[in-house]
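lol forgot to send this yesterday, sorry. struct tokens for the thing we talked abt
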């Protein structure tokens, strides 16, 4: 990047956004970019497919209010997320409650609001039934399935020997529990991996889960109203990573939708991406407060870091930590560049935003822009650690 270029985001200068935020650090999300991503994804999906948003990716209330008009539903995992979704205008029947450790309070609220509950154990089915009986209300229960299928290309896996879902061998027992407690069968839910960037991986996973769902429904003599294939679509974040070929994924989903409709005319495929919808639509901006050299390594110390954007530092979903795309906004433009590492203000060795990245020569007061920051930001970070101020969050 030329040292004299003025980075923009969402049609706004970064310095202008900093003034609007009032101070650094801050997040900014481009609502128009989110809209375009949803529009483009819908254009390749089956017409009947349900596109839902995984709220855990970014629960900013203003964003959820916009999402309410853009998606068919939302994935929630707690009382707090249910309440945020309802406050943003989502009707309860458009929500799906997931998670391996649902509290009794969450189950009670879900039953009261008409939320589809994705049971993750046979014991949880009993607790759902008890909550429904106490309220005298029906409960719609899907089964989250943990299929025995190897997922490659990502280290973030929620199947196999993980805590998530019901072992596929135990699904007949779970279906019997639904019938015994007279709970409405709400379909099957699969979410086996995250940050998948290879279409072949996604397509193979979707094919396996669809085949398993259709076979299980046939064996049990059930109509299949809802086949949730989860999310997990990745976004490229570092040099050398290619974007997911969603056109290929969409074509494959078209064929799976035809199979589903042939056997279950009222059945609908659902997807629940989070990061894919908002990750590339956001930035995190912090200010350089110090530069120093330690044993030949140049360090830039900034006023933001892991307490706001843990994902940018630890990156637990990668085999090796990598630098997210970054830009420098200089107060005094200069053409020379340098190799630097960037650390935050915390008294913790993991508070490192970048190692050995080439940027224009930086000085205290310059702004650092961390891109690909629309997902898993403030809400997924230890914001109370060491008592630093929270980061402002702007939605354009």
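and heres what i got for the seq, position by position
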């Amino acid at each position: 990047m030329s040292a004299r270029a003025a980075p923009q985001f969402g049609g706004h200068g970064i310095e202008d956004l900093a003034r609007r935020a009032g101070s650094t650090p801050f997040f900014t999300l481009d609502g128009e970019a989110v809209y375009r991503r949803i529009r483009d994804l819908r254009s390749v999906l089956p017409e009947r497919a349900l596109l839902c948003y995984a709220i855990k990716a970014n629960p900013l209330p203003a964003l959820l209010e916009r999402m309410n008009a853009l998606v068919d539903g939302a994935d929630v995992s707690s009382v707090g997320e249910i309440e945020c979704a309802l406050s943003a205008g989502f009707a309860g029947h458009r929500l799906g409650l997931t998670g391996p450790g649902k509290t009794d309070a969450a189950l009670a609220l879900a039953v009261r609001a008409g939320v589809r509950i994705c049971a993750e154990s046979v014991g949880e089915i009993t607790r759902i039934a008890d909550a429904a009986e106490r309220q005298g209300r029906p409960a719609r229960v899907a089964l989250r399935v943990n299929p025995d299928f190897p997922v490659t290309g990502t280290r973030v896996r929620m199947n196999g020997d993980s805590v998530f879902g019901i072992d596929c061998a135990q699904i007949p027992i779970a279906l019997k529990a639904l019938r015994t407690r007279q709970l409405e069968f709400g379909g099957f839910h699969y979410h086996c991996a995250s940050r998948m960037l290879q279409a072949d991986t996604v397509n193979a996973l979707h094919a396996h889960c669809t085949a398993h769902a259709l076979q299980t429904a046939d064996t049990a003599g059930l109509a299949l109203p809802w086949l949730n294939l989860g999310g997990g679509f990745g976004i490229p974040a570092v040099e050398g990573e290619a974007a997911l070929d969603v056109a290929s994924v969409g074509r494959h989903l078209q064929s799976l939708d035809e199979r589903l409709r042939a056997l279950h005319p009222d059945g609908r495929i659902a997807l629940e991406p989070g990061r894919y919808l908002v990750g590339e639509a956001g930035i995190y901006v912090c200010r350089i407060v110090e530069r120093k050299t330690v044993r030949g390594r140049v360090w830039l110390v900034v006023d933001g870091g892991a307490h706001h954007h843990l994902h940018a530092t630890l990156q637990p979903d990668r085999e090796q930590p990598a630098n997210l795309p970054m830009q420098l906004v200089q107060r005094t433009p200069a053409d020379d560049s340098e190799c630097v590492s960037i650390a935050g203000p915390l008294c913790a060795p993991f508070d490192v935003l970048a190692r050995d990245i080439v940027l224009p020569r930086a000085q205290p007061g310059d702004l650092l822009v961390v891109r690909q920051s629309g997902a898993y930001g403030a809400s997924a970070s230890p914001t109370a650690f060491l008592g630093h101020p929270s980061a402002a969050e702007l939605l354009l």
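DSSP finds eleven helices and 19 strands in the chain. anyway ping me if u want another try
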